[in-house]
Amino acid sequence: MHGWIAYIDELTVGHIHMLIESNDRVKFLDAWVHEDYRRKGIFRKLWERRWKYVKKEFNGYKAYAWAKPMSLPLLLEKGFKAGDSSVYVEMDVEGFKPNGPQCFVSC
Ligand SMILES: CC(C)(COP(=O)(O)OP(=O)(O)OC[C@H]1O[C@@H](n2cnc3c(N)ncnc32)[C@H](O)[C@@H]1OP(=O)(O)O)[C@@H](O)C(=O)NCCC(=O)NCCS
């Protein structure tokens, strides 16, 4: 995992990460900018720093991400092609009480 952090004075105002995977793939993930500092180009600047590094060190790899609505526009602007979308799901583990015959459910 690689990370890039943006800070102003001693305050961390944003970060992005990248995971190196098998099969010559790198996954871009976990972009975040502090709410008070959004829409000032911090994500763009972090993204471009990471991209410069990736082009130098991971030439020939496939870069991919599961983007959220706020991060998708920049990825499309940079030339990424939209593929599958995903849906967020959750469940309280404590609250799970099997009812009736149990069956295996995968996702
Ligand atoms: C997504 C996020 C990291 C953007 O950070 P930011 O510093 O405000 O983004 P920037 O100012 O650098 O914007 C870069 C581009 O991203 C896109 N963008 C940023 N915020 C957006 C929003 N609210 N809606 C739509 N597009 C947005 C735009 O294309 C923008 O380019 P533009 O300013 O030329 O229009 C920030 O809003 C955030 O932390 N959101 C919550 C967490 C999240 O959704 N993370 C993304 C997936 S892990």
**CATH architectural category:** 3-Layer(aba) Sandwich
Estimated helix fraction: 10-25%
Strand content: 25-35%
Radius of gyration: 18 Å
What do we call the CATH topology?
Aminopeptidase
In total, the number of domains comes to 1
Order of helices and strands: EEEHEH
Largest sheet: 4 strands, mixed
How many separate helices?
2
Bound molecules: coenzyme A
CATH superfamily: Gcn5-related N-acetyltransferase (GNAT)
Distance between the termini: 25 Å
Instruction: Describe the global form.
Output: extended
Q: How is the largest sheet built, in terms of strand order? A: 1-2-3-4
**Unreliable stretches:** none
Class of secondary structure makeup: alpha+beta
Output the CATH class name: Alpha Beta
Mean pLDDT: 92
Q: Count the E strands.
A: 4
Structure write-up:
- The structure is a single chain.
- This protein has a 4-stranded mixed sheet, with helices on one face.
- It has 2 helices and 4 strands.
- The chain has a single domain, classed as Aminopeptidase, CATH 3.40.630.
- It has 107 residues and is of the alpha+beta class.
- The model has no long low-confidence stretch (mean pLDDT 92).
- The structure holds coenzyme A (COA).
- The site of coenzyme A has 16 residues, from strand 3, helix 1 and helix 2.
